[in-house]
Amino acid sequence: MGLLRLLLNVIWLVFGGFWLALGYAVAGLICFVLIITIPWGIASFRIAGFVLWPFGRTIVSKPTAGVGSLLGNIIWILVAGIWLVIAHVTTAVAQALTIVGIPLAIANLKVIPVTLAPLGKEIVPSDRPFVSAYGAYEG
Questions:
Q1: pLDDT for 33-59, tens place per residue?
Q2: What are phi and psi of 16, to 5 degrees?
Q3: SS3 label, residue 117
Q4: Which of 6, 26, 49, 91 has the highest CB neighbour count under 10 A?
Q5: Whole-prediction pTM value?
């Protein structure tokens, strides 16, 4: 399974992952420059790392996320989320035109929920979806 993940990640990186990660990095830099939007910048960089190498990792909701995350996600959707979703859909359509690209297109579409609502989410290894980055069991 590890070799297949590596192969899919390398193909992903070449055929869309780099450009998508660059989009998230630009959004993150803009958020850091504006200072008050630094939490969105941190989330954007976290997602940039995920879209660079997505296979073998998954996205889970943090059980401690509250109203602040909800309000922050609404602002994110209006400012950057919708543009990043358009980038994902465009890339997914281009990837799906070939048989080899269909798994990549599906992976692209799976990233859209975290693109729309990055706050209150965590990226964890897919073989341990109930363990947070802090090592605590969250299931």
A1: 988 889 889 999 999 999 898 888 888
A2: 145, -35
A3: coil
A4: 91
A5: 0.78
